[in-house]
Design goal:
The protein is of the alpha+beta class and 741 residues long. It is built from 30 helices and 20 strands.
């Protein structure tokens, strides 16, 4: 409890920022008005208090508001709340943030232009202020989510934030009677029952009920929150964790006892959430540095409790608990414990949610690897999938599961898995896509090509078209060029990006001459009734084929009037270009620089609520990148200096300088890293990125023999990653380079 003071006490949740001067005329300055959502001022202890923040400003499109309205998980640092008097309340998440090594970042947001019409954001005051004692309190909000786009260095996030201070809001907090608390909890439970039955939905009433539960702050509410602290209830889990973290200290032993009982419950799946929450509720020290060390020890102790309870767990709870214990293991885990947990997880793998099965087979294979798992892998690989080309969550995740199960089956029994793979794609209704089979050795399947071509020609569903075109591009021989050309000729420009990219990839791969006019058409097609895939043509095709024809057309696209088309071409030339494209890219960069030189203020200017000239800024950055980070050549100090000399604007120049500084980090050893997952590969060498082992070998061949490199291990260091890094090491040695570990 803080000592009573007569002045406001500020609950700061943001780093202090300097506040630029507002407009000289007061009535033209942005204003912040705050009121309670329902207009009331009387609340019980533990009752949710929603505030409406109304932002207004002049009609000059100079000021904008960040509309982010997430939870307070490290992403919502726009407001601080000044509360008077200084006692009777607390920051509910003070210990949560103080004892954590970091916070969640990111999150989507949007921007609204301020005007005389109020822009309203609703926040729950309880996120920042927990009233523990009855009394009368005054709240003043200081918000830094409004920015003046006429200041700063420009760009979407370059404007300077203003500190707007609200009107005072007076609240009267009264004691919560037992009857009120029971009625409120019953209301919350009724809302849960009525609205939590539909998977994937979170009605507003249910969201409000979860928030009410989080802030109620009673022993009974803590018990309910503990029961819902499970990953198979994502609607509740995160809010319930923060609600338990924000309890008054006197309730910690009660909540902790409830959670320990749940850990012993055979049907309760233990995730990392209850383990982390339990550790916070047991903290005894007030020093954040000591708290972080204490939490680590306590989490390990709670891990041991969950391990002890594992034998009694059943079904899904057993599988999820075993997975948690493996993924959140303490440093002291023994090989015997690891093997024990791996055996349980392997035996109950099918009881995990689909996305967790994918994760374990992808990243936890070292623990699961066993011929005993073959029946499970076969079962998973044979799951029917009617729409393998769909990117809807259910179809997409099932496709991932089928793919990784088939991959692991292939590792244990290549012949049978290969036979099953061909069975699934060699029909008019394939159950896998080409990218799902990226782990298979490169091979041609002419016996299926005519079937795929016939289905591609007659299909009118873009998902089926994408599946057949990609299978042909991946496993075809070129025997169906005429059919694919005819289909492409009828649909290029109006086609969805996936089938168009695969079909053009097939043509580029097997008949570049006939492909060229098709690719040129695809780049030029735009406007009403078109698919807008002209902005990704080169990247779409490069998934299946690269060729000098694409390089030529990409060079031509450097002068396209659409910056997005040019950037697509630049990305292709940067990843797959050769020395011949250096001069054309340089010429385009010089033209861009001359166009904007002396007009940096125009380049970086924008109106409130708009993105301004971000496409042109991005084009300049990508032209610079394509010169300094190109696959086709080593950027010399002279080239880097010339690129830097021609940058325009603070934002673009800062990005180019960062790239240049990375490039100048030589003479070595140059850092190297390797990554591969399915068909996605990336090999980083100094400032360069190579998209395959073949391209990596071509890149390092540009360095003098005997150059020193240093391999940075990539996490997780499982057997797959170690084998990939061994391949990389052998490649460097074969080319006369020194790769240090």
């Amino acid at each position: 409890m803080m000592a009573r003071e007569s002045a406001f006490v500020s609950l700061a949740v943001v780093v202090a920022l300097s506040t630029p001067a507002l407009a000289s005329v007061e009535d033209t300055a942005p204003q912040l008005e705050v009121r309670t959502a329902e207009g009331q001022s009387l609340y019980h202890v533990g009752e949710r208090i929603s505030l409406k923040l109304s932002f207004t400003g002049p009609e000059n499109k100079r000021f904008e508001t960040n509309m982010a309205s997430y939870d307070r998980s490290g992403r919502m640092a726009y407001e601080e709340f000044k509360v008077a008097p200084a006692s009777g309340w607390a920051d509910p998440l003070h210990v949560y943030f103080g004892s954590s090594s970091g916070s969640i970042g990111g999150g989507l947001t949007g921007f609204a232009t301020l005007s005389a019409k109020p822009t309203v954001i609703t926040l729950d005051l309880n996120e920042w202020v927990r009233f523990d004692e009855p009394g009368t309190y005054t709240i003043v909000v200081v918000s830094r989510r409004v920015s003046d786009v006429s200041t700063g260095s420009g760009g979407l996030f370059g404007a300077q934030n203003l500190g707007l201070t609200s009107n005072p809001v007076r609240l009267r907090i009264i004691p919560a009677t037992k009857a009120w608390e029971r009625a409120k909890l019953a209301e919350i439970r009724n809302e849960f029952e009525a609205n939590s039955k539909t998977p994937g939905t979170e009605p507003d009433l249910l969201k409000a009920a979860v928030a009410d539960l989080r802030f109620l702050g009673t022993a009974a509410a803590a018990r309910v929150m503990a029961q819902h602290l499970r990953e198979d209830e994502p609607t509740f889990m995160y809010e319930c964790a923060l609600g338990l973290d924000g309890l008054r200290e006197k309730l910690h032993p009660i909540a902790l006892a409830d959670m320990k009982r749940l850990i012993d419950d055979p049907d309760f799946p233990v995730s990392s959430w209850p383990l982390n929450t339990m550790s916070l509720l047991q903290l005894s020290d007030v020093d954040p540095a000591v708290q972080r060390e204490e939490r680590a020890r306590l989490t390990d102790a709670d891990w041991a409790l969950a391990l002890q309870a594992l034998p009694a767990k059943e079904g899904k709870a057993r599988a999820l608990t075993a997975q948690t214990l493996l993924s959140s293991q303490p440093k002291e885990i023994s090989p015997q414990q690891r093997a024990y947990l791996g055996g349980i997880l392997a035996a109950s793998l099918k009881d995990l949610p689909v996305e967790k099965q994918v994760m374990e087979l992808q990243y936890g294979w070292d623990v699961l690897r066993s011929p005993d798992l073959l029946p499970t892998l076969e079962l998973l690989a044979k799951i029917p999938l009617k729409a393998p080309g769909s990117n809807e969550s259910n179809s997409y995740t099932t496709r991932e599961l089928k793919s990784v199960a088939l991959q692991r089956w292939f590792e244990l029994d290549p012949e049978s898995a290969h036979e099953e793979a061909l069975r699934q794609i060699g029909s008019p209704d394939p159950s896998l896509t080409a990218d799902s089979l990226a782990f298979l050795p490169k091979e041609k399947l002419p016996r299926f090509e005519s079937l795929w071509a016939d289905e591609l020609v007659t299909a009118d569903d873009y998902q089926r078209e994408a599946v057949f075109a990609s299978l042909m591009a991946r496993f075809g021989t070129g025997s169906a060029v005429a059919q694919v050309w005819e289909k492409a000729n009828a649909k290029v420009g109006e086609w969805a990006c996936a089938p168009q990219g695969a079909a053009l990839g097939y043509l580029v791969k097997f008949d570049p001459a006939s492909a060229r006019p098709m690719v040129e058409r695809a780049v030029k097609e735009r406007g009403k009734g078109k698919s807008a895939c002209n902005r990704s043509v080169f990247q779409d095709i490069a998934l299946y084929a690269t060729d000098p024809v694409l390089t030529d057309v990409a060079q031509e696209a450097l002068d396209d009037p659409d910056p997005q088309v040019t950037m697509d071409a630049l990305i292709y030339l940067m990843n797959y270009g050769d020395k011949s494209v250096e001069q054309p890219v340089w010429n385009r960069y010089v033209a861009w620089s001359e166009e904007w030189r002396g007009r940096a203020d125009v380049l970086e200017s924008r109106g409130a609520g708009s993105v301004g000239n971000w496409e042109e800024v991005g084009l300049g950055e990508n032209l610079a990148r394509a010169l300094i980070q190109n696959q086709g050549w080593l950027a010399t100090p002279d080239l880097i200096s010339r690129v830097l000399e021609r940058c325009v604007g603070d934002q673009m120049c800062a990005q180019v300088k960062q790239i240049a500084d990375q490039a100048k980090a030589g003479p070595g050893p140059y850092p190297v890293s390797a990554y591969r997952s399915g068909q996605n590969e990336n090999y980083q060498v100094a400032q360069y990125s190579s998209k395959s082992l073949e391209l990596l070998e071509a890149k390092i061949a540009q360095f003098p023999r005997g150059t020193k490199f240093s391999l940075t291990p990539t996490s997780p260091q499982n057997q797959d990653q170690k084998q990939l890094e061994e391949q990389v090491q052998a490649l460097f040695e074969r080319n006369g380079m020194i790769l240090c570990l």
